[in-house]
TrEMBL record:
Its cofactor is NAD(+). This is UDP-glucose 4-epimerase. Residues 3-251 form the NAD-dependent epimerase/dehydratase domain. Keywords: Carbohydrate metabolism, Isomerase, NAD. SUPFAM superfamilies: NAD(P)-binding Rossmann-fold domains (SSF51735). Its EC number is 5.1.3.2. It comes from the Bacteria. The keyword NAD applies. InterPro entries: Epimerase_deHydtase, NAD(P)-bd_dom_sf, UDP_G4E. It catalyses: UDP-alpha-D-glucose = UDP-alpha-D-galactose. Pfam families: Epimerase. It is an enzyme of class 5 (isomerase). Belongs to the NAD(P)-dependent epimerase/dehydratase family.
Length: 326
């Protein structure tokens, strides 16, 4: 039996694929390569190139697997919250319509297990410093809204058709578990810092007047490999027929500041720099950190990597890309 990983050629998805392989579980990948990379697909892993908007392709993928697919890890999606404000229709199409198509194809193929890659963006700006699964959901972008709608679709399909599902919410995913895999997003903090350093520019901090110890924003940063392990743990729980919560936060419980990240990057890379200070961005809260207690209980969730580990693994992958570009 195999698990289908949507978006399995992307940064997060490719780590999820490798986590399944490491535990001896077969996988099939579907990815349209809009942000993923064919080079991230391991040798010997079945790869279907195409979009979840292509209903015939989805139907064919399940049919050709001939009943071998036992569940789906749904990582594919348009993940840029800021850009989603300018492209709401595109965001809903990629994240809502695509999820609807996937669920329909699963129902037709009698596949009833799904692990959904959701987002802490569903919370918006919470009123509490420590976010739990019960914290009010107030998404502030089409991206966050689309992820919450995705969770609703799973919930409703669970009621209607007995779908077994869970949604994993997380904040900032960083690091690398394989030197050949890296975050290539043009919007995420680590790639922005590393690209600046590689290009000889000075990384930038947006605001140093927040109500935090060093004046910079505090957020959850979690290592991508730790995240991947919990996706597999959720899949194993479903395969075993064990009870699973509909939602889990994959959070650090304490968080780190942007200032701490900059200092760690300088120490790890050996590149001495003083970040440029730009004005704070509107709507950025001082501190958002999630509790991971529920996931620690059920999904083998633990922060196995220090901030130094996260920075070093990501920097090593970025340096390798300079020598061997995608």
């Amino acid at each position: 039996m195999a698990w289908l990983v949507t978006g399995g050629a992307g940064y997060i998805g490719s780590h999820v694929v490798r986590a399944f392989i490491d535990e001896g579980i077969d996988v099939i990948i579907i990815d349209d390569l809009s942000s993923g990379h064919a080079d991230f697909v391991p040798d010997g892993v079945p790869f279907v190139q195409g979009s979840l908007l292509d209903t015939e392709l989805l139907r064919r993928t399940f049919t050709e697997a001939a009943g071998a697919i036992t569940g789906v890890v749904h990582v594919a999606g348009f993940k840029y919250a800021g850009v989603s404000v300018q492209r709401p229709l595109h965001t809903y199409e990629q994240n809502v319509t695509a999820t609807q198509n996937l669920l329909a194809a699963m129902a037709e193929a009698d596949v009833s297990n799904i692990v959904f890659s959701s987002s802490a963006a569903v919370y918006g700006t919470p009123s509490t410093d420590l976010v739990t699964e019960e914290t009010a959901k107030n998404p502030e972008s089409p991206y966050g809204e689309s992820k919450l709608i995705g969770e609703w679709l799973l919930r409703d399909q669970g009621v209607a058709a007995g779908l077994t599902h869970t949604s994993l919410r997380y904040f900032n995913v960083v690091g690398s578990g394989d030197i050949a895999l890296r975050d290539t997003s043009p919007h995420n903090l680590f790639p922005l810092i590393f690209d600046a350093l590689v290009d000889g520019r000075t990384p930038r901090i947006n605001g140093t007047d927040y109500a935090t110890p060093d004046g910079t924003c505090v957020r959850d940063y979690i290592h991508v490999s730790d995240l991947a392990v919990s996706h597999v743990a959720a899949a194993r729980r479903m395969d075993a027929g064990e009870p699973i919560s509909p939602v889990y936060n994959l959070g650090s419980g304490d968080g780190v500041s942007v200032g701490e990240i900059m200092s760690t990057v300088a120490a790890v890379t050996g590149i001495d720099f003083t970040p440029e200070i730009a004005p704070r961005r509107a709507g950025d809260p001082d501190r958002i950190v999630a509790s991971g207690e529920l996931a620690a209980r059920d999904l083998r969730w633990v922060m196995r990597h220090s901030l130094e580990d996260m920075v070093k693994s990501a920097w090593d992958a970025r340096q390798a890309a300079v020598v061997r570009p995608l």
